[in-house]
Amino acid sequence: MEVRELELDLDAFEGPFDLLLTLVLKEELEPAEVDVAGIVVAFCERLAERGELDLEACGEFLVLVAALLELKARLLFPDEEAELSELEPEEAAEELARRLAEYRRAKEAAAWLAERLEGESSRFFRLGPAPLAPKVERRLAPQEPEGLAAALRLLAAEPPAVSLSHLQLRFPPVSQFLERFRTVLSRRRVFDLDAEIVGMPRIDQAVAFLALLELRRSGEVSLEQAGSFAPIRVRRLEERRPEWTGIARSA
Amino acid sequence: MDRDRPFRLITAGPVDRLARTVEALLVVASQPLSVDELAAAADDDPARVETALGLLGERFAEERSGIVLEHVAGGWAFRASREAAEACGRLFERPVERGLTAAALETLAIVAYLGPVSRPEIARIRGVAADSVVAGLVERGLIAESGREEGIGGAVRYRTTPLFERVFGLESLSQLPRLDDVGEEAVQIRERLEAVAERRGA
Predict the structure, then answer these.
(1) Which chain B residues have a beta carbon less than 8 Å from that of A105?
(2) What is the pLDDT of residues B134-163, one digit of tens each?
(3) Among A205, B116, B164, B180, which is disulfide-ready with B142 (CB 3.0 to 4.6 Å)?
(4) Which residues of B touch A124 (CB under 8 A)?
(5) CB distance from B108 to chain A under 8 Å?
(6) Which homologous superfamily is A174-250 in?
(7) What angle do CA A34, A35, A38 make, to 5 degrees?
């Protein structure tokens, strides 16, 4: 007789015993969900069917089921371990007896309910969801026609136009900065952009930067920056522009 | 309902008219109605509603009518007469109690006697986790949530529903029989445990 192949049909599990153990060990099945008494009953029935005592199977079953029981007990009463170990044997026996009596009472009550259910099996009645509660009529308080008109007039009045003036941006012309930078460059070969635009509004600073890019594009300056957010150094590209213009003129 | 009393026809008296109204209310209701609910809907006096219920009880009694008036789950409701049960059973099943397992009945008993009671408490008494059984009973409508245990994150507590009383034919939970005193039982069980321990020791 193979204990591991014992077929089980429990509330929480249906299948062979070894699969149940595997699931419990893999923590895919809560030991607390397993009705151990049901397993014992299934085993005893199988044993009775065979009509002979298979000592080896019994031994194996006892070991397995005891381990399962211990696991289940530990999980069911995790925080009671300390509490129970503090009890004197006398008190522990009393506690155990009290719990067994409590459970027996629940079983008795269940037996009464089962009997009652059997006795009331001829009880048929209409079952359905509760009907909707009747609609409560809502009555408006008496209203003054003048008050109503005043309220409507308020709603009918055209709302004031919303001003978008704060959204309008005024960009200074790029040429203004081109001229300015060219003037600076005519006096100095090198200047720092930051020094020239300090104190200007952000819009002006942005346009100044665009002017700088324009100068760079036309090859009038070279730009250097040591790193992100470092000062931008503007250097005049001396000879090229006059030379180039000169050639152009002479050509 | 007293079957020996003569069957009274409902005539056109004021209480008789109220009885007809109450009868109509019970026909449209899908759950037992209390005297107060009936009185409010009929817009009449509760004492007169009780008199009207008395009249209806005589008329809608077992062996007299296919419809029987009964006091159940704290209210009044119509059900089919017992002699028609077989025919009713051929028409439809009683889904609420179909396949109630022993585990479910035990849990139901614990909730009925000790409710409101939480799942951990049920698990402690039965020695098996109660989660799936409790969920099944909630789905059947036999038990329902009823607050939480005290303290932060307290476990949900459960109690039985009016449907439970109706299925089991109880006027109220007080109709559940008293069970033997636990103290006395504990002593007996303990004596048995000790007897077993002595035998093993010998």
Answers:
(1) 113, 179-180, 182, 185
(2) 998 998 889 998 888 877 677 889 999 988
(3) B164
(4) 79-80, 84-85, 88-89, 94
(5) yes
(6) Structural maintenance of chromosome 1. Chain E (1.10.10.580)
(7) 135
